[in-house]
């Protein structure tokens, strides 16, 4: 065995409390190198009476490694443990003290999980585990109140530019809640709605005021209330990394320089605060001088922003925050932010915009979730671009799954497109069959799925600002077949809990073959999903020792004969099979 590939760490995603009774242990080994891994666990104060051996399941494989997992349910919420690894006649033990050929005497040198403290558990809102989100840019969704239209408004449906406004507002969202209810979504995420000079509103001027072209606080209250009446949660977007240059505190800095009482609210490198040769003398979002970066370590700045977060939850009963450019704000601020938000509403959902590995924000003391752009990259690279084979895709997805504990994976914010990326149908080259495969994967994968407004009726668009086109409300111009498909898949996910929280595992993912099979397995149900991301008709086969499978969408029996199940698939086709346990 390649012992240098063994890895375990008694923390984070390698050893964590899933709930108050269950700890998950994970071990890494070289791919296809170890035949069997066993967790040997016991109570450190009475090993003789309370110990057991737990076979570990190989739950994932990436390009280099296999990942094994076992559940431990310690009687007294604490235990010590080591791992026994075997390949053929060779057996070794992995301990905190190193690798040895014989089992060491308990418990010196053993790993330890000292105690399961409820306050230390990763605790995301239960509702988020079963939610289906819908992202809305208010300016582009629907114009419900022409009396508050901005001046110089573009014609609805015109090609969007970086400056164009179209008059969408909160009343427009309220007017179209039937669309959301019929589609089956259970949560909406609105891009910023606070006072701002831009169409996207990511440069806030007044955090305590709804932009006058969107409505007012009473309208937001009404929208949240009506959404709640329909079982729809509402999450708002907050920009605490930076403001607009028109933010009153920054304007004071421009006028009074170092003498301003707000001088420390920002990161001014040299005074006066100005833009020289295209580069600001103060820190900004990117290199945009009109978006000065806030100093969230400043106590007064921090209190102001935390009061904003608290105010809108208590005042309008929103259900959480999506946090823009979250990775550029300090961790101390986010820890305080979580405390304030959870005190205001314990089941509020906190989603950070972090585009990369996000473990440091997902330890239970900051965010509940992050926008899972790495998921979108891998899924669209496979289904839309068709540039990789099944094995490479499975390796990439398994690597993502192993980044985080299971509880985190159950609420991570999965998306295929957003206001910052090309629309999914455009990414798929207009091929609706490719789009459908990506959506099937989204809706049958672990995590919290999100749909970008208009994707469900076939909107297209490239990079920003093209992806931010106006919603089409004329049904004759909508792709109603695609809408019905989204509705069908959302309904399937909502009906079966195993698609939300069951174990995910690839059953077939081979090199030089794009066809894949994966499973979702949980209490009482077992799903398999068969996919053919190629332009050729095909028959997929997999060993199956039961004959009680049915098509989850049609109810038709899917037979298995002589221990093998064969499934015919059209070009870019799929089937979702289900059996009861």
TrEMBL record:
<dbReference type="GO" id="GO:0005975">
    <property type="term" value="P:carbohydrate metabolic process"/>
</dbReference>
<dbReference type="InterPro" id="IPR045857">
    <property type="entry name" value="O16G_dom_2"/>
</dbReference>
<dbReference type="InterPro" id="IPR013780">
    <property type="entry name" value="Glyco_hydro_b"/>
</dbReference>
<dbReference type="Pfam" id="PF00128">
    <property type="entry name" value="Alpha-amylase"/>
</dbReference>
<comment type="similarity">
    <text>Belongs to the glycosyl hydrolase 13 family.</text>
</comment>
<dbReference type="InterPro" id="IPR004185">
    <property type="entry name" value="Glyco_hydro_13_lg-like_dom"/>
</dbReference>
<keyword id="KW-0378">Hydrolase</keyword>
<feature type="domain" description="Glycosyl hydrolase family 13 catalytic">
    <location>
        <begin position="135"/>
        <end position="493"/>
    </location>
</feature>
<keyword id="KW-0326">Glycosidase</keyword>
<dbReference type="InterPro" id="IPR032091">
    <property type="entry name" value="Malt_amylase-like_C"/>
</dbReference>
<dbReference type="InterPro" id="IPR017853">
    <property type="entry name" value="GH"/>
</dbReference>
<protein>
    <submittedName>
        <fullName>Alpha-glycosidase</fullName>
    </submittedName>
</protein>
<dbReference type="Pfam" id="PF16657">
    <property type="entry name" value="Malt_amylase_C"/>
</dbReference>
<dbReference type="InterPro" id="IPR013783">
    <property type="entry name" value="Ig-like_fold"/>
</dbReference>
<dbReference type="InterPro" id="IPR006047">
    <property type="entry name" value="GH13_cat_dom"/>
</dbReference>
<dbReference type="GO" id="GO:0004553">
    <property type="term" value="F:hydrolase activity, hydrolyzing O-glycosyl compounds"/>
</dbReference>
<dbReference type="Pfam" id="PF02903">
    <property type="entry name" value="Alpha-amylase_N"/>
</dbReference>
